[in-house]
Amino acid sequence: MRSIEIYDTTLRDGAQSEDISFSLEDKIRITERLDDLGVHYIEGGWPGANPKDIDYFKKASKLKLRNSRLVAFGSTHRPKKKAGKDETMKALLNSGTSFITIFGKTWDFHVTEALRVPLEENLGIIYDSVSFLKKRCDKVFFDAEHFFDGYINNPKYALKCLAAAADAGADRLVLCDTNGGTLTGSVSEIAKTVMKKFKTPVGVHAHNDGDCAVANSIAAVEAGAMQVQGTINGLGERCGNANLISIIPNLQLKLGMKCISDDQMKKLRDVSRFVNEIANIRHFKRQPFTGDSAFAHKAGIHVNAIRKRPETYEHIRPALVGNSQRVLVSDLAGRANVLRKAEEFGIKIATDSAQVQAIVTNLKELENQGFQFEGAEASFELMMKKELGLHKRFFDLIGYRLIIEKRKEGESPLSEATIMLKVGGHIEHTAATGRGPVNALDNALRKALEKFYPQLREVRLLDYKVRVLAAGSGTTARVRVLVESGDKENRWGTVGVSENIMEASYQALVDSIEYKLLKEVV
Question: Quick one: angle between helices 354-369 and 377-388, nearest 10?
Fold first, then answer.
């Protein structure tokens, strides 16, 4: 079985999507999920381009990754500057990873009009950059920027650029459709030509401006490429990058090529939805393989057929990618997902238990209210434990009050939270201020509880996101709040939903505290 390297650039190329901005903690959480999925390379960012990417590599280097290698991304050195004196080269080496990807110009039009150097000088820049890095790290991948456009315009020069990188010791020659407009037939023919001329392994990096990125990536692999670069859910600049959520199952399930393990393949839907939640964007229902509608059936003829033989209207078994079959009148999905999550949480529950169906029913009701548990696994675990009688109440709310006061134009408002809780036989009544009402409420909760549960001193609120659920409802719309919390060892997500943003925030904060206490007190 032929093996294909999966190279993920969600954290770098995907983060260039309009309306997408990953925090440092977001990037770390996504890194861990990508490692769990089994991708071979995770491109973490461009060290030196911004402080966040520098901090990312410092923090990510401490992760205990089992399957993935971190990759730093940058460009060839600047014209009229030696590789050893170039700040980009230094930043790449200082990233702490021994796997580096650099891109270089391979379209003569770009060399003369964008880089504004002679064609021969660009060949020297490619060679010097790759050679300099190769002597100082384990692997160097060369992204041949605009390669397909370059080849179509000037094939001899485009191939000379690849030869310069290969001669300098590049470990992969990655053919990039940077403008995303090349059609699949051209990608296939050009890739075949490259394979014949170079012994260096070849990869492909496709953008989706012509809606062909997945097809182009698969065509390049069929032509001989052994590395595919892309992003989760096709995130990326302009129209996005090649979607790994579609590429991986197509290569493995349809073409028999090894990308990840079968067990990892079953996590595809969870990872897809997790990244969307962290990016704070809506899930695309009709996304192939992992969308809610991917295996949903409504027409009577279809439903009648799939009840007899699912393959009559399903191109693969949904469970292979972690999805499930749905019938849009009487929904058949749910039990398998609950049982799988129970296993992940270490909760023992019989397959035929009535409690499983009760959890499914509760889950569907909560989802109908606007709850989503991708990215909020801690809240889902708490919900399951409540249904199974495994939950413990650590405190009861008597009431809380929030005051927001603005005293002068141009000054920030003051936020204060007062809260009254019952802990065992004790009544605790306290107040705290914060940089906003949510921060004040969080501080008041901790202040009231830390004397009873000192473990909470370790907990930090790492991230906070709000999603308006009902477009067009204005300020009366229901909102979903997603909170990420962490301690010295772990991070976890919780969720709350309400028409009142502070009540939704309170729900998520309480779940975060209860999750920590259930893990350490019970």
Answer: 140
Question: Could you tell me which residues come within 8 angstroms of residue 29 by beta carbon, excluding any fewer than 6 positions away?
Answer: 278, 484, 491
Q: Which pLDDT does position 39 carry in this prediction?
A: 98
* CB-based contact 258:1 (threshold 8 Å): yes
Q: In the beta sheet, which residues pair with residue 73?
A: 101
- Which strand (E) or helix (H) includes residue 432? strand 426-434
Does the CA dihedral 52-55-59-60 come out positive or negative?
Answer: positive
One-letter amino acid identity for 353?
Answer: S
Q: Please report the domains of the chain, with CATH numbers, ordered by start residue.
A: 5-260 (3.20.20.70)
What's the pLDDT at 218? Answer: 98
* Whole-prediction pTM: 0.76
Token representation of residue 433: 């201020």
Q: For the beta carbon of residue 38, count every other beta carbon within 10 angstroms.
A: 18
Judge whether 53 and 44 are in contact, CB under 8 Å: yes
What are residue 341's phi and psi, to 5 degrees? Answer: -65, -35
Estimate the crossing angle of helix 213-223 against helix 184-197, to 10 degrees: 30
What pLDDT was estimated at residue 357? 87
Residues of the chain below pLDDT 50? 329-333
Query: Within its chain, how far is the Cα of 97 from the centroid?
Result: 20
Relative to beta strand 460-468, strand 479-486 is antiparallel
Strand bridging mode 41-45 / 69-75: parallel
Q: How far apart are CA 198 and CA 371, in angstroms?
A: 52
pLDDT at 44: 97
Nearest to 7 by CA among 227, 245, 321, 270: 227
DSSP 358-416: HHHHHHHHHHHHT---TT-HHHHHHHHHHHHT------EEEEEEEEEE--STTSPPEEE
Phi, psi at 222, each rounded to 5°: -60, -30
- Distance of alpha carbon 193 from alpha carbon 82, whole angstroms: 32
Tell me, what DSSP letter sits at residue 247? H
Phi, psi (degrees; rounded to nearest 5) at 97: -105, 150
Instruction: Give the model's pLDDT for residue 331.
Output: 36
Which residues on adjacent β-strands are paired with residue 100? 72, 140
What are the Cα distances from residue 488, in Å, to 25, 63, 460?
A: 14, 13, 9
β-strand pairing of 414-423 with 426-434:
antiparallel
- Tokens standing for 341? 């999550």
pLDDT at 333: 41
Q: In the numeric block, which tokens belong to residue 334?
A: 């749910």
